[in-house]
Amino acid sequence: MKAVEQIRGRAFLHDVKNVTIDRADLAARLRDQMVKGTPYSLDDWGTILRSLQLVDVPASELVPKLLALYDAQVLAFYDPQSHTYYSIRQLPKLPPEAAKLVDPETLEQTVMVHELTHALQDQQFGMSTKEQALLRDTDANLAYHSVLEGEAVLVMVADMLGKAGMQLDDVVKDDGMLGLITSAAQAETMIDPSTPKYFAEMLKFPYLDGLKFVVAAYRRGGWKELDRIHADPPRTTRQILHPEEYFARTFKPQPFDTTTPAGAIAAEHMGEFHWRFLVGAENALGWVNDRAVINRDGRVRIETQWQTPERAAAFASAYGVFLKKRGLDASVTRDASSVTATYTVKTAVNKTAAARAAAR
Amino acid sequence: MNIDYANLENDLVEGLFRQRLEEELTAGFRQLHQMGERLPVASHYASQIAEIVNRDAELGPDMKYNLYQEILAAVEAARALVLGEPSQPN
Question: Is A336's CB within 8 Å of B83's CB?
């Protein structure tokens, strides 16, 4: 705890509860966290991801796939709901090339610094309350999560550098060194190639792009700048991807209404991160806002807003092609800087209705 | 907009609710647009309006669904109309 306090220049308000568990118990704990951290039932969540064309995994495999990914990645974790630091007795099964590079004791200390930074964020900046408030806004939640993980990685890096007799301030100024750190943080080799790409990207984004955002903040004003960010965190992944817009206040995030309309499973806020994933970074540039409503009968309606009519046209064209490739009979219409897409996916509900109609 | 809760179902079926809402929204959106403000996406407004109307109405699931669809149609029509007009940013 002292190392985190010294690096971060902030003190813990009280001790952190620590519980050690066996790796065999991890899946159940993580499942519990997923249930608490998802505003829908896990079945509905699967339907939403498939309806938005983010994953192709069948519903029955979705949660096991995600738990398998976490099981291979998690060395310890901080649960903001119970304000508890969970350490795990056994290391995950590492690929042979990764296992050669890892000294278990160093790894344990490094991970502890990272997770205790989350405990400090919780005590000093009300992390758990903020996360709860953002539960139904996926884009804002991912943006905030990116600040938390980016900061925890930077504190961890500062600790490692300190042990090697180096200073964080010297390293963050050096683009070459910084590139090495971010590429090391990618840890591609640790992710099972059978993992759905969306899950892998969702896992990496807060660490990689979050770290880049936090480094941009640190370069501006050290850890004090991070304190300021906690008081007014970015509300969209666009701000994480374009830190200069956040610091210059040149992009004003639009409001997102989390109310689920009648007949719908969810109203989702996708943000630039998700559109990059679906149509590529170039076609997601200039994103302003969106709202995706996924109905129980399989109808999906997605409204998006863009910085200019030109950006809207580029997105509309790319998204139309994407949906066609996915075999969907979609309508994509543009009105100045707004693009609306509607299509219908097969759901358990409408599949049953179709089967009944065919049997008549 | 004053909502006639006693005749809401009838107004929804006959399209009167949608027509009145569209007229009111067009005036409001026009003000925002002329001030150079960006109009939020249609379903953002629609779900908020539906929430307000639902608070004081006792509607079954089907009628709630129809209400939302009517509101969404009104917001879309008002939004499209105003977006087709020139804005006058400050």
Answer: yes
| Residue listed under structure tokens 């159940």 | A28
* Terminal alpha carbon distance of chain B: 28
Determine the Cα–Cα distance for residues A195 and A96; give it in Å rounded to an integer.
Answer: 18
pTM summary value: 0.87
At a CB cut-off of 8 Å and minimum separation 6, what does B75 contact? B21, B25, B42, B43, B45, B46, B49
Task: Look at B41 and A304 and tell me if their CB atoms are within 8 Å.
Answer: yes
pLDDT digits (tens, 9 = 90+) for A287-303: 999 999 999 999 999 99
Residue A327 Ramachandran class (φ > 0 left, ψ -120 to 50 alpha, else beta): left
A256 touches B at CB < 8 Å: yes
Chain center to CA of B18: 7
CA distances from A204 to A3, A115, A275 (A): 25, 17, 16
Note whether B44 contacts A255, CB cutoff 8 Å: yes
**Over the stretch B58-77, which tens digit does the pLDDT of each residue have?**
888 888 889 999 999 999 99
Contact B41, A290 (CB under 8 A): yes
Residues of chain A with pLDDT under 70: 94-102, 183-190, 347-360
Identify the CA nearest to A263 among candidates A290, A291, A299: A299
